From TrEMBL:
Residues 1-153 form the N-acetyltransferase domain. This is GNAT family N-acetyltransferase. Keywords: Acyltransferase, Transferase. One of its GO terms (molecular function) is acyltransferase activity, transferring groups other than amino-acyl groups. InterPro entries: Acyl_CoA_acyltransferase (IPR016181), Bact_Acetyltransf (IPR050832), GNAT_dom (IPR000182).
């Protein structure tokens, strides 16, 4: 398997992956609107010089994806900017085969070449499979975001 930078020709597959991500995350997030929804402007990410979208190929088949993009940090923390990772998807039949590791390695290299000293990502607290994959890639839990629904009287 190998990685490469995504192109606009990959958009049909990448849009399928996006819907796969949404379907996988629905059980973890009751705030998601009903379908159809979209998380990303994938074409804009592919075209941006401030982002990198990568795919993992097994032969000619795209089996995984992810992106890294410049993101400003909160004004009171260092570093001022970090590389934010998202759009991490692996075809179900390829999970556990190191595809996510290849995505993270490619995006880590992209971030290093641009002088970033930190990578960040978000994952649902109950998504234990994803958490294990990210911990395996060297990520550590940093901050927990909490929410509470209010009933309107």
């Amino acid at each position: 398997m190998r990685t490469r930078t995504a192109t606009r020709a990959d958009l049909p597959v990448l849009r399928e992956f996006e819907q796969g991500i949404i379907a996988a995350e629905r059980p973890f997030d009751p705030t998601l609107r009903p379908d159809p929804i979209s998380y990303y402007d994938l074409g804009e990410l592919i075209d941006s010089d401030r982002a990198e979208v990568v795919v993992v190929l097994d032969g000619d088949l795209i089996v995984g994806s992810g992106y890294a993009k410049y993101k400003g940090s909160d004004p009171y923390v260092a570093p001022a900017e970090h590389a934010f990772l998202g759009f991490m998807f692996v075809r179900p039949e390829y999970r556990g085969c190191g595809v996510n590791q290849l995505v993270v390695a490619a995006l880590t290299e992209w971030a290093r070449q641009r002088g970033f000293s930190e990578l960040r990502l978000r994952v649902y607290a109950d998504n234990t499979g994803a958490i294990r994959a990210y911990e395996k890639a060297g990520f550590q839990e940093h901050l927990i975001e909490m929410r509470r629904e209010l009933t309107l009287e």
